[in-house]
Specification:
- This protein is mostly helical.
- Among the domains are: about 90 residues, no CATH class; about 40 residues, no CATH class.
- The relative contact order is 0.03.
Length: about 300
């Protein structure tokens, strides 16, 4: 500890001496720059010559002295550093930590390791010799897991159902081109019905029944859509013919369309002889709804 403190004190003393020397030189230069009277020019010239000679001799002597002092101080510092390192090697790890806390990390490193080694300012640039090779990354920095190796070569999946490149959906065009799918569906429905009758496991039977009902509902809804479209087409044809005759055009509302659908339904039920059953069921439903609306008798 004493040796390290002495080293730092000596370094401070050398810095003080150099600072005082530079201050004195600056003062001399300022004094020499001050304006003089014209009568004393010759006298000053001779004096200047004498001063210059004395300055050169003094500078030579001071340079030699400073060189000698510098070499002596360097040798002394080197000897002291060697002794300090020897003392530090004999110290325990706990004592070294205490010493580091007292001196500070900067002074401790200067004593133990000497002067700092300057790191190169220019950073290393990681490049690829070939564009297809993977990029060389620094091992000191953690790489993100989400980072992709080459995002440009990522495969993009395309669903033609939701892509604009496939064109707009036309229901009538689709049905005309893929009409065979409805035949396949009807066959599957018949197969499910047969397997449902043969099935003995109650859980599987329930699943098959649910599947059959779903397919049946889909089929019925498709039929209703087709009927609605045929009705609309027929109505449009009638309207076009009436407009040609000179009448005003009449546009169908949703309520009018429902009325037309009901009229068609009644006609079909009347042909099949199921109209009375349908009407009786409908009356029962309406009666139940009315009973629910009535207040409860207490």
């Amino acid at each position: 500890m004493s040796s390290t403190i002495s080293v730092s004190k000596k370094r401070k003393s050398t810095l003080d001496t150099t600072a005082s020397y530079s201050v004195n030189n600056a003062k001399k230069n300022k004094m020499s720059k001050l304006p003089k009277s014209p009568g004393d020019e010759l006298h000053m010239m001779t004096k200047k010559e004498q001063v210059e000679e004395s300055d050169t001799t003094s500078e030579e002597s001071t340079d030699q002295e400073s060189e000698d002092e510098g070499s002596d101080t360097q040798e002394a510092e080197a000897d002291e550093l060697v002794t300090v390192k020897q003392e530090l090697s004999n110290m325990s790890f706990e004592e070294l930590i205490q010493l580091k806390e007292r001196l500070g990390l900067k002074v401790y490193n200067q004593v133990v390791h000497g002067d700092k080694v300057k790191k190169p300012t220019s950073k290393r640039v990681f490049k690829r010799e070939n564009k297809n090779r993977p990029m060389e990354m620094s091992s000191k920095r953690p790489v993100r897991l989400s980072k992709e190796s080459d995002p440009a070569k990522k495969k993009m999946t395309r669903d033609p159902r939701f892509d604009d490149l496939s064109g707009e959906y036309n229901e009538s065009y689709f049905k005309s081109n893929y009409s065979f799918l409805y035949d396949i569906k009807s066959r599957e429905k018949e197969k499910i019905k047969k397997t449902m009758k043969k099935e003995k496991d109650p859980e599987k039977k329930v699943e098959l029944k649910m599947l059959y009902n779903r397919m049946d509902q889909q089929e019925q809804s498709e039929k209703q859509k087709d009927k609605r479209k045929t009705l609309e087409k027929e109505w449009k044809k009638k309207e076009q013919s009436q407009v040609k005759e000179g009448k005003k055009p009449f546009f169908l509302k949703k309520t009018d369309l429902r009325k037309l659908e009901l009229a068609e339904k009644y006609k079909e039920l009347q042909k099949s002889g199921k109209l009375e059953n349908y009407l009786s069921k409908k009356r029962k439903k309406t009666a139940q709804k009315e009973k629910k609306k009535l207040p409860l008798m207490t």
